[in-house]
């Protein structure tokens, strides 16, 4: 019964997410697609940082690799930025595979470094990605980027160009509605795989490496191989996230995959709780939706100025709120949102029942000796000379 109660919030959350396209406007649908794409990438990074104890600031590189792999393999043959014309389903799979292969090629470095040293090494990948995206114009479209082919499966398209009319409960399901359920399915699969990985033998080995490499090696764990495994899995998650970002935007450019994106991914898992799948999802949703909501409703908020006016803009306020949230989490919410939720659940499960009667009488002091005979008071602790 307790397991059912613990899974009830997850089931309700999935149900609400499945029903949202029937009620939400196009703005919220588009924002939800951005958030779900970020959730996949954040799950991959929290597996790397929280489970394996490896720091990476190159998540944007693998996201860019996945995005351009999808755009190139699914793109039409011919034109300035030509493509291979492969089925979009295969292109989505290749986005994760190519990113994982790139992570494996980085294994000589990721298998030997850890902590801040690995983080600094991965920063170079972001600059490498920028150089490749700008100069490989036949694949990436150069500085201006390239359009992204819409997702489709045999007999069904996820774009507005599909002539088939689909309506549910009187709501016409256009491209955003259809992509919503595709993204939701990918998010649920990514979360399920990540949770199973944490509970598996591989996940326990990665946790041992995080806690102590020497102890893990003494237990028979191949430390370098474990590090490479975590990095490859995280890279695959980032590649899939990049492909979803490409589908959500419809057009990609190098500016989307800068160092700021890697920092945003790191903020997501810190706010949500490093090592937590649900925390990564909550942190990603907060980081993505906050600036979008502020920009959308900036005209209705009196303390926000329009862009270029010199006042407090929505993007600047979002960064300030990020900074305040990070400081608050580090000082008062160790473990992030997931840690706070876990502590609240623990207090609820272990709180004494409220019977409505008088408080219980405390037990007698065990230091007082019991009377030798009934009716005789115990001897005083003070002795007289």
TrEMBL record:
Keywords (A to Z) from UniProt: Cell membrane, Membrane, Transmembrane, Transmembrane helix
Top-rank lineage group of the source organism: Bacteria
Segments for region (Disordered): 344-385
Topology of the protein relative to the lipid bilayer: Multi-pass membrane protein
Gene Ontology MF term list: branched-chain amino acid transmembrane transporter activity
CDD domains for this protein: TM_PBP1_LivM_like
One GO CC term, this protein: plasma membrane
TM ranges: 34-53, 60-77, 89-109, 116-133, 178-194, 228-250, 256-274, 281-299, 319-341
Protein name per the record: Amino acid/amide ABC transporter membrane protein 2, HAAT family
Principal location class: membrane
Pro residues biased stretches: 355-377
Locations listed in the record: Cell membrane
Pfam families linked: BPD_transp_2
